Amino acid sequence: MGAPVNAVANKMPSKDAGVTSVPALSTRGLAKSFGSLIVARDIELNLPTGARYALIGPNGAGKTTLINLMTGMLAPNAGQIFLGSEDITELEPQDRVRRGLARTFQINTLFAGLNALEAVTLAVCERRSISREFWRNIAVHGEAIEEAHNILVKLRLGEDCYRATRELPYGRQRLLEIALALATKPKVLLLDEPAAGVPHEESGEIFEVVAGLSDDLTLLFIEHDMHVVFRFASHIIVLVGGAIFTQGSPAEIAADPGVREVYLGTRKHG
Fold first, then answer.
1. d(CA 8, CA 233)
2. pLDDT in tens, 215-249
3. What is the pLDDT of residues 139-180, one digit of tens each?
4. Measuring CA to CA, how many Å separate 249 from each of 39, 56, 108, 235?
């Protein structure tokens, strides 16, 4: 796997801080099955505030399923999900977003007919519960437009403000999807393969932008490129067969022979 380069380690809370404070996002005994197919097994997670965690594992390990459970796209058969100290297990997805839990998807879902600034402004207006007025006269939403523009600049999309979303290169579209998520002002952001389908030379920029987000924002991202994982994650969770196989620092994961076996296919993982 190569020696890890932890580019954001100095931004992360200490282990003691993660233990003594309430996690930004946590799960307890989370389980999900479809008939006899078990896709999540007794998952216990604790994401400290400001963490940059990576979720890795072989294809079919249940990574996207776990994010779907945490965001309410799937209902668990057992267990609990907490956003801070609040149990959000029974909340609808939109209510979790309002409380500060946002996500992106493997395949982007953008407003093809809007330009980048309009799309993010609409997301800001939705958060402010004024989206119905957006279509009447966007010019009256000066504060929302300014907030949207600031988000786009932060994500290096300032020059693309007036480009239609469908005309943006794919890598820029993935950044725009992150911008839409940030417009909800999340406390926790879950990124499901944010660089999927993006040329290798552009994927690094996406993660550089992600690494530069606010220290108060907790991130959990799924990624298959181990170079990216070791560079940008402070903590790595390895999921196998719907269960946590192991977790630890990039150095600990890189040195774990069991993880190597899983990725080389010499260990049965279901």
1. 7
2. 999 999 999 888 889 999 999 999 999 999 999 99
3. 567 889 999 999 999 999 999 999 999 899 989 999 999 999
4. 25, 13, 30, 5
CA atoms 52, 261, 107, 70: torsion sign: negative
Nearest to 106 by CA among 137, 48, 134, 65: 65
Instruction: In whole angstroms, give the CA distance from residue 258 to residue 237.
Output: 13
List alpha helices for 106-165, DSSP H. 116-127, 131-134, 142-154
**Cα–Cα dist 54/60, whole Å:** 16
- The amino acid that residue 151 corresponds to is I
Q: Inform me whether the pLDDT recorded for 253 exceeds 70.
A: yes
List pLDDT tens digits, range 21-62.
Answer: 899 999 999 999 999 999 999 999 999 999 999 999 998 899
The two structure tokens encoding residue 268: 């049965």
d(CA 119, CA 183): 10
